[in-house]
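We treat protein structure as text, and this decision shapes the records that our systems exchange. Because each token names a local backbone shape, the row as a whole describes the fold. For reference, a complete record is included directly beneath this paragraph.
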Amino acid sequence: MLGPLTIVAAKPRRRGFRSHTQQLLAYLAFHREGATPDETIAALWPDVEDQKARKRLWDAVSDARAHLGECILRANERYFLDREAVAVDLDQFEELLARAHAGRGAD
């Protein structure tokens, strides 16, 4: 998330990620608490007819899972990234910041 979007699968496939899949993965990376289908569609595809947008969401989730395994989970009507299954550089950056703040004032 810091810099250009880069998504690397453990097992690269011939066909890369669809643009809708990339959008979904980036959106979920920024929303640690996840998002409902309606929130996701409103954020990513606001001008797309509802039925088409829902299919786009389903296709993006399926594509992400095909490339990355069960990286997108669904609970309580919310999609979210399984941060145990994927590494997000934003998470790593925030962890380093927290450590730096915790170390202030220490020798």
Observations:
- The chain has four helices and two strands.
